[in-house]
Design brief:
Layout: E1 7-12, H1 20-33, E2 37-41, H2 44-50, E3 53-55, H3 83-95, E4 100-105, H4 107-119, E5 124-128, H5 144-165, E6 167-173, H6 180-188, E7 193-195, H7 203-215, E8 221-226, H8 234-244, E9 249-254, H9 266-284, E10 290-295, E11 298-303, H10 304-309, H11 316-326
Parallel strand pairs: 1-2, 1-4, 4-5, 5-10, 6-8, 6-9, 7-8
Antiparallel strand pairs: 2-3, 10-11
Helix pairs in contact: 1-9, 2-3, 5-6, 6-11
């Protein structure tokens, strides 16, 4: 495969997600397989500005595919938002003779890549790494499957204690702007209700459902809440329910950042591996300023501009499915 690209750098940026290490590993080994030099950039755009760039070999990524987090670390960078910061980053890339960059991250990462390439001639290709699964142009993002499985495992454990003590639990999962984790974990965990930011929560319907549940002597229930639901997080909603139904023994569990960590699932390891190799092959084939995605189990290319301007749509049929199964 003939290409003007002789060296590629890989970085992770934004929130960490399980499967990032699998993608890093794939980028490194695919680059070497094609005779291309490969570099790692620590701490995302901030590390790029500071020149925290180092050569990588095959052994650099040994024994990492099963690890959560990212061996390249991640950081937010206010400096990269400035013209001066991007000038410094460009100078560091040129200093290390880097021809292209594979950026693993989410919306903010790709927004930075778009701005950078309006000013400089080093192309980027992106790999969607975010547990929220909210990027347009891919069925799944790195980390989503692992995060959902973590949430489901927690809900299963909470269900045990809810049943033992006849309690109503409100379980808050991550997803400030997207309810994918809540929706999938709610269905898989058999939640009585799932509240997500994409669907306006009908407080009266929620209260009615809880009231009918009590009448049927269903004394233990679970409501899954995405942290971005418009009527508040799990604590605020629990307070409203408690004010109306003081006979319920109510508890709140916020899963928080435990959903980000842990060993990636098989799906996320395979996803990271496929996307990592595809990102290198895309660059060598002259495909740039794109995000690598998986659509209908095939590699799919979406421009950065489209990926960051559109959101992945929630399948409302899944929300309806959850309502049917909880009745």
């Amino acid at each position: 495969m003939s290409s003007p690209i002789k060296s590629i750098a890989v970085m992770t940026s934004g929130g960490d997600a399980p499967g990032m290490n699998a993608a890093i590993r794939a980028v490194v080994r695919a680059s070497l397989s094609y005779g291309v030099k490969v570099y790692g950039i620590r701490r995302g755009y901030e590390g790029m500005i500071e020149g925290d760039i180092f050569p990588m070999e095959s052994h650099s990524v040994s024994n990492i595919i099963q690890r959560g987090g990212t061996i390249l670390k991640s950081a937010r960078s206010d400096r990269f938002r400035t013209l001066e910061g991007r000038e410094l980053a460009y100078a560091q890339l040129k200093k290390h003779s880097i021809d292209a960059v594979v950026a693993i991250g989410g919306d903010g990462t790709f927004t930075g890549a778009v701005q950078f390439n309006k000013e400089h001639d080093i192309p980027f290709v992106g790999i969607p790494g975010t547990i929220d699964c909210d990027l347009y142009g891919t069925d799944y993002t790195l980390g989503f499957d692992t995060a959902v499985n973590t949430a489901v495992e927690a809900i299963d454990r909470i269900r045990d204690t809810a049943d033992s003590h006849d309690r109503l639990f409100f379980v808050e999962v991550m997803g400030r702007d997207a309810g994918f984790i809540a929706l999938y974990s709610g269905i898989a965990g058999g939640a009585e209700a799932t509240l997500i930011p994409e669907s306006k929560t009908d407080e009266n319907a929620l209260m009615d459902m809880l009231g009918k549940g009590w009448e049927r002597k269903k004394t233990s229930m679970i409501v899954v809440v995405a942290e971005g639901d418009e009527i508040g997080g799990a604590y605020q909603i629990a307070e409203k329910v408690k004010a109306k139904f003081n006979h319920y023994d109510i508890r709140v569990s916020v899963l928080g950042h435990m959903q980000r960590g842990g060993s990636p699932s098989c799906l996320d390891r395979v996803l990271g591996s496929r996307m990592g190799v595809a990102s290198v092959e895309a660059l060598l084939a002259g495909r740039v300023q794109i995000m690598i995605g998986i659509v209908n189990n095939h590699i799919h290319y979406t421009s950065f501009e489209k990926a960051i301007k559109h959101n992945q749509d929630i399948d409302m049929n899944l929300l309806r499915l959850g309502e049917i199964l909880s009745s």
